[in-house]
Amino acid sequence: MTKLFSYSVLAAASALAAMGAQAQEFPASGRPITIVVPFTAGGPTDRVARDLALALAKPLGGASIIIDNTAGAGSSIGTAKVARAAPDGYTLLLNHIGMATMPGLYRKLPFDVEKDFSYLGIVNDVPMTLIGKPNLPANNYKELTSYIAANKATINLANAGIGSASHLCGLLFQSAIKTELTGVPYKGAAPAIADLMGNQVDLLCDQTTNTTQQIEGKKVKAYAVTTAKRLTTPGLKDLPTMQEVGVAGFEVTIWHGLYAPKGTPPAIVKRLNDALKVALKDPVFVKNEEALGAVVASDKRVEPAEHQKFVAAEIAKWTPIIKAAGVYAD
Fold first, then answer.
1. Number of domains forming the structure of the chain
2. What are the distances in angstroms from CA 311 to CA 45, 121, 258?
3. Which end of the chain is more exposed for a tag (fewer CB within 10 A), N or C?
4. So which residues are the signal peptide here (predicted)?
């Protein structure tokens, strides 16, 4: 029994030593890390990934970090690519709220969001704004609700495509006001905003990264922000929150998180998480995120376990809303 105990202690000590060495050696000199972005280049998520890659490289010993844009099917193609990758820390995923909405949007996915990834931490939150066309009669949220009540059969709500951030925000808005509006899907946020400014559609709920300039330039009417607190951005600080105008519990932010394939060694997960925490405090990264209208994560969600709990809660939040709307993307 004593010998067996000794062998067990030695085995455990050897395993710990191996894990420690593994973390110290990661990333290996000359071997790049790839961050898969499941969207096309040039979009908000791609920009976040490229800024994050620069900030992550420093605490990872100057590692080379490559961005791989594998877009399509509402981010599920790129996400599946990472789920299938070797769990060695060299292939990561940066994805947004789509990680929480894909389980509700797709009848069948080639991966399980909650089981097939090692969670590394939340990166940021991007607020959203509810805006209207320039000639909409309503000038504030109270007037807007009255206008909707009187004209709900003819009012339309634009979005950037099924499963997009604006689509999800729109679904939650309709659920909150218990009114179904006519949806007008576009192939991206840019054409949706262009038509809104041209008075071709009535309403849109989209990210500050896409709406701040139009709001500041008074090219659209702004009614509320979707955060729990008012924003500090000069052109948006006077906008009330949805909760302030009476929509209890309405809070939507388009968060981004970092992931590795399931089975990534705990020592490497810790190494990546430690590096992420340093990157999130990098002054250049913070400045770049503020320019996008994003808020860099600084709460407990930067911890892997809390990140996973948060995504599970977001899945529970969005799935019934998506299913109630009867929206599916096969």
1. 2
2. 17, 10, 12
3. N
4. 1-23
